[in-house]
Task: structure prediction
Amino acid sequence: MFDKTARYYDALYSWKDYPAEAQRVVDFVRQYKASPGNALLDVACGTGKHMEALQESFAVTGLDLDPGLLEIARERYPALQFVAADMRSFELPQRFDVVTCLFSSIGYLTTIQAVRDTFDTFANHLHAGGVALIEPWIFPDQFEPGNIHRLTPDDSDGVSLCRMATTRRDGDRVQLEMHYLIGTADGIEHLRETHHTMMYPREVLQEQLQQAGFDVTWDEEGLMGRGLFIGVRRS
Result:
């Protein structure tokens, strides 16, 4: 997905308060988790920024499909474990007490079957009483046509960045066209990526979690204002 721009990912999202979001994760886990352990799997972990803070409270493992992001995570946190796998079908030899899937990564599942498979996989890797925390993407009624999204982080290491993205809706599918301008002393480079996402109604995601064996609570604020599904795995 970020095959051309993985090395700029953290600079583009430098506005995110990862420690504060991680503390919110800790708070939700303390409130809802009924299993006795503290093993946490961060699905779609990206470059590992949430794990950096979460390792203070949990034994953390990261999982992602993007090799470029995982390469950065492994170089940055050599003592942590990272797995290259698909969230829909991964098979790990252990179970966890917490599974997180944050920053709207679930939106990259573009069929309801993919959502169903993913939630089943989460449930299969959780102890009874364990917690899944899933941060959704936008819901269909929140889509605003015609918006141009722009990120212009502060310059760092001699690199100036700008990302502009436009969205095109087809039913509940959304195509994001992302254009990057990367300025260095050698000149300006233009890169382009296309991302495909799906907007699911909240009740659809909640139903799929319930069918996968979770008791589900919805928190309107979540970690950063996008809301959060909290699923507790039934026995």
